[in-house]
Amino acid sequence: MDTGDLGLPVPVPSTALFTDQYEFTMLQAALRGGTADRRSVFEVFTRRLPEGRRYGVVAGTGRVLDAIENFRFEEKVLRFLRSHGVVDGPTLDWLADYRFRGDVYGYPEGEVYFPGSPIMRVEGTFAECVLLETVILSILNHDSAVAAAASRMAVAAGGRPLVEMGARRTHELAAVAASRAAYLGGFASTSDLAAGFRYGIPTVGTSAHAFTLLHDTERDAFTAQVKSLGSGTTLLVDTYDVAEAVRTAVEVAGPGLGAVRIDSGDLLLVAHRVRQQLDDLGATDTRIVVTSDLDEYAIASLAAAPVDSYGVGTRLVTGSGHPTSSMVYKLVARADGDGPDAPMRSVAKKSTGGKTSIGGAKWAARPRDAAGVAEAERIGTGPVPEELAGVTLQVPLVRGGETVGREPLDAARDRHRRALAGLPMSATQLSRGEPVLPTEYV
Amino acid sequence: MDTGDLGLPVPVPSTALFTDQYEFTMLQAALRGGTADRRSVFEVFTRRLPEGRRYGVVAGTGRVLDAIENFRFEEKVLRFLRSHGVVDGPTLDWLADYRFRGDVYGYPEGEVYFPGSPIMRVEGTFAECVLLETVILSILNHDSAVAAAASRMAVAAGGRPLVEMGARRTHELAAVAASRAAYLGGFASTSDLAAGFRYGIPTVGTSAHAFTLLHDTERDAFTAQVKSLGSGTTLLVDTYDVAEAVRTAVEVAGPGLGAVRIDSGDLLLVAHRVRQQLDDLGATDTRIVVTSDLDEYAIASLAAAPVDSYGVGTRLVTGSGHPTSSMVYKLVARADGDGPDAPMRSVAKKSTGGKTSIGGAKWAARPRDAAGVAEAERIGTGPVPEELAGVTLQVPLVRGGETVGREPLDAARDRHRRALAGLPMSATQLSRGEPVLPTEYV
C-alpha cells in the first residue's frame, strides 16, 4: 500500500474520516438491526451535465482506488469516534477490522460521460459500501469538474500547450488534484511543485512581477534571470512598458531568448505587436506565453494570435463556472432478505423535485456508426444485449477488495484524447448546447 | 510545532511544495544576483469583491500561520528539487536551512474586508517572503470564499442553525477547510467527521435515503434507526410519500421524535404541511430540517416557513457562485540597495488591464460614527493619522519567525459576528450591490 497515493505531497495513513457522520450512524443502526450484511449495489452518476456542457470527463478514479485502499480505522480515529459518541462499542469493534472487501466497476478514468452514465458501481455488504459515499463523491466531483474544464480548454487551444497555474486560487491540496485532472484533460504541465512531486507532471515557471520590482531596473532583473536560468528562459515583459521590455529582453538574452510572457492587457493586440517586434529583432524563435485570466473562450479568441502557449489558473481550478460535478452515490439494488442467497431487488427513491433515480445495477454501452463515431449512451439493467457486448464502458476496478484497475496517469490522459476523438464533432463546440450523445435507457 | 494544524485529519510534515515553481527560480536568480537579502514587503489584497457582494470575510489566517511554521525542506523534497533540476546546488543548500524569520501582520481572522484592504503583510528578505506566495494565497483565497458564502447564509437564516454538509461536493481536504470556514462564518455544525476531528467543530448526521431503501419497509428502517439512535434522532421522510412517512415516524418514535428531514420537493409547501401534520399528531416539539440545494436566497425564502434548521452543501463549499476570492500577493516595497541600512522604496507594477497595484506598506483603519457604525475602509502608507490610531485593523501574526497571532477558532467566529454587527445595515442585504464601505486612500 503506497499511502503517498492520495494526492498529497506526503503520505497520509487513512482516509476514513473523509466521511459524513450519517454514514456511521446508518452503519450502527444497520448492525444493530441485522441488515448490515445485506448485499448492496451503490452507483455513482449525475442527473445532468452543467448547463450547456456537451460531455463530462471522468477523473479521480485512480485517487478513489487509493482512498478505498487507505480507508482504515487507526486507534486515534476510533478514539475520536468513541469520545464524541458518534457510534457505539459494537460499531467501533466492527470498524477496527474494516477494510473494503467488495467489488468496484466503473468507467475507466479519462472516459467521457453523460447524464445517467453509471460512472462507478460499488458492490458489497451495505455496511462496507455505505461508508465510502463521501470520499468517493468528493474525489470524483472535484476532479471531474476540473478535468471537464481542462478538456474544453485543450480543445480551444488546438495543439498549443497549456500550463496549469491555478494553485493559488484553490485549496492547497485541491490544487494538487486539480493539476492531476488538468493533465488528464490535456494540459501539458503545471506550476505546482507538489503536483510534480506527487504525480510526475512536468513543472514549469520562471519569474513574477515581484522579481522585476525587486531590482533597480528591469534590465538588472532580466540580466539576473538570464544569468541564473540561461537565455532559454521566459522573461516577463509587462511590468512597465511592454515594447521597452521586449527590446531589453532581447538585448540581454540575445535572439536565442526562449520566451516572453505577457500577463495583462489586450492579449490579442499585444501578442501581435510583440511578435512583430521579436521578429524585427531577429528573435524569430522566441515564443510568446500569455497568462491573464484565461478560460476556454479567451483561449479560443486567441487562436489567430501569434501565441505559443497559455497559462491558465482561476478558471481551470474552479471548473470554468462549474466547480463541482453533481455526482451522487445511490443505493440501486440490495438483497431482498438477510440470507446469503437472498435475491437482489432494485430500489430507488420516489422521484420528487427532479431527483430521479432508476433502480437496478446498470451496464452502459456506447455503440458507434460505420465511421466509428459514437451514437448514443445506452444504459440498461440485466444482461447486456448481444449487439452491445463489444462496446460496454465499465471495467473492473476492485475485485474482492483488491485493486485491479490501477494505471498510470498517462493512460487516462491518452484515453481521454481517444474518447473525445470518438464523439460527434459537435462535442468540441464551446458554445452551449445539449449533451452530444443522447442517453437511452434500454 | 503541531503539524496536525494543517487542516488535515492527520499530520503532514511540510507545506514547502505547495508552491509554484517560479518562486524557486526567482529565489535562485536572486541568490546568484545578490538581491535575495533585500528587505521586502509583500501584501495580500483583492482588487474587487465578487460582483454584487457587499463585504468579504477574512478566513484561513490560522491555517496560514500553521503553513508558514511547517514550511521546511526535508531531504526527500530537496531530492525532488535536485533531481528535477528545479534549482541549483547553492539554492538547495539555502533551502535546507530555510525557516521564515520575518514578520507577518494582517487583519485578524473573521474580520470583514473590502477592495484594497491590506489583508496580510509579509515582511522579511525577498528570498524568505517570495516562497510563501502560493501557499498563503491558496489558503486565504479558498477559505475566505467559503466563509463569505457562509456569512451570507447565516444572515439569511436569522437565528436558525445551519449545518455544513458539502464535503461530497469538493475535494476531500478542501472540505475540511470549508467546514472550518463555514463555522467561522456562522454555521453551527458539520457533517464532516474530519472537520470534527481536526477542529472540534460539532458534527451531526443520522441517515440517508439508502438506509430506508435497505429495509423492506420504511417502518422497518425507522424502527431500526430509533432503536439505534433513540427517539431524539432525525428521520428522513421523503424517500416515498412524505405524509405517510411522517405518520409512520411519529408512530415509531412517539411524539418525542427529535426531528424530520426533508431533502426534496417544494420545501416551503412541504414544510408547512409537515408542521401541521406533526402538530396534529402531538409532535409539537419535533423539529423540521431541510436540506435540498440550498443557498442564501433559498434560505431567505424559507424565513416564514416552519423550518428549524438548514443543511447546506454544494453552494456553501463552492462559495455560492464565487469559489475563490481573487486575492493577490504583491511586492509593494523593498530595500533600495543591498546594504542592511538601505532605505525602503515603494514599488508597483504599471497598471494595465485593470491590474492596479499601489506601492508601499499600508495601514488600514475603519473609523465609526457616533452610533458605532463603520464609515469607511481607510487605507494609507506612512504613519497612521492620529485620529485613526484607535481603529486600525492589522494585528501582529508572526514576529521574527515566531507565531504570535494564533487563537481558537471560536475567537475568529465571534469576531466575525461582531465585525458584521458593526457594519451599516445594508451589509446584510442579500441583493447585489456595492461594497458596503467605501475604500478611501488617505
UniProtKB/TrEMBL annotation, chains A, B:
Residues 339-360 are annotated as: Disordered. It is an enzyme of class 6 (ligase). Keywords: Glycosyltransferase, Ligase, Phosphoprotein, Pyridine nucleotide biosynthesis, Transferase. Pathway: Cofactor biosynthesis; NAD(+) biosynthesis; nicotinate D-ribonucleotide from nicotinate: step 1/1. GO terms for molecular function: glycosyltransferase activity; nicotinate phosphoribosyltransferase activity. Transiently phosphorylated on a His residue during the reaction cycle. Phosphorylation strongly increases the affinity for substrates and increases the rate of nicotinate D-ribonucleotide production. Dephosphorylation regenerates the low-affinity form of the enzyme, leading to product release. Pfam families: NAPRTase_N. Gene3D superfamilies: Aldolase class I, nicotinate phosphoribosyltransferase. It catalyses: 5-phospho-alpha-D-ribose 1-diphosphate + nicotinate + ATP + H2O = nicotinate beta-D-ribonucleotide + ADP + phosphate + diphosphate. This is Nicotinate phosphoribosyltransferase. It comes from Streptomyces hazeniae.
